[in-house]
Amino acid sequence: MIRDVEVLVIGGGPAGLCAAKAAADSGAHVLLLERDDTPGGQLVKQTHKFFGSERQFAGTRGFQIGEMLVDEINAHENIELMTDATVLGMYEDGIVTVLKDEKHLKLRPVKTIIATGAAEKFLTFPNNDLPGIYGAGAVQTLMNVGGVKPADKVVMVGAGNIGLIVSYQMLQAGVEVECVVEALPNIGGFLVHASKLRRAGVPILTRWTVKEAYGNGKLEGVILCQLDDKWQQIPGTEKDVPCDTLCLAVGLTPLAELAWQAGARCEYIRELSGHVPICDENLMTTVEGLYCAGDVSGIEEASSAMVEGRLAGYAVAVALGYDVENAQKEVDAAKAELVELRSGPMGGKIRAGIAKVEQKRGEA
Amino acid sequence: MRIEKHPILQFDRGEKVTFLFNGQEMEGYTHETIAAALHAAGVRELGHSQNLDRPRGLFCAIGNCSSCFMTVDGEPNVRVCVTKLKQGMVVEEQHGKGVVKG
User: How many CB pairs under 8 A join A and B?
Assistant: First the structure.
């Protein structure tokens, strides 16, 4: 049996939650799918306070933003939330298949918003598969969701915001943070996060990398070394650092598989951290009625994912003819908010990425 | 080890349960994933790579990467990082691809 759905939102993270709410507030009926047993996406493990403006929940901790959004979704009569539900495929005839409680469901949505987020990137070095080498997000999940001390002694790779924030959170959980290693000549994340670490006595080593890891059955230490200005390892600079955990915070890459599968045009755009669907200004892909919001169409912050979700949700409402005047106003407001979030020196990369998307779109 | 005191968070771990890991009785909580309970008990080696049989632990902890496959109650390739613990579960390290029982 095929179930008809008006608006299908895939992914219950910041983008998906905001998309579902925007479409439902306008009058559309929404089915929101989340593969985990709890919605909230990666907000559930973020204990730091967000930046931005009031509308983007500045000053509130990530997990509290998640709880607020989920409460609104649960209370909304136009939204059905289905957890433990993994989308398996999107077919040419518009049918979407879902695995839910060992059952295979078939859906036929009128409009679909993909908000599947991103996956952590990996780093290449000998013995990088030893148990104890974890993604920074994994460490955050273990300690902030699971309440488990993730390490006794850790080396962090990456001085972007995730590397800095997770290092600080590990200090809060009683972990000894040996150092933060960064291949770039400068710290990529906000200096407010870096300063907290430096005040706690954690060295941030720029132009350093992991040469190799070692251990018998699990990680026992890493060999670090310095890099020259051509990114080559400098012989003789090796430093042996015993540790039980190596944490990789070397970026994320979009989970755009479903958009590919549905036939949406995708292109590799370095500034957006991978292959991304080419979307128009309302975040619609090259497939009519199929939208993307959040990290799936380019790696950014949770703040902008929420605004993109709102933009896609209201754009879908306009397309379906719900509360058109107000929904269009909200679409325009969301676009303006994104411009503001992406202004300033930290937004340079995302602006370059979006310019490339616009250029690709023009090429057709 | 579990975090007992945290400046921001409080943890609702659920009920205490026992389970078997490679035949050895262990304790954990119902709101924990299998991976979290094992990690708290100091177990990091969860399985082995298919071709070279190298030790494998978790990597993403959100059900994305397949690094944490274990055999649970006889079912192979269970992502223990997103599977909640239950009383009496039988959790085993997995070698090779695992066999699906008919």
Answer: 101
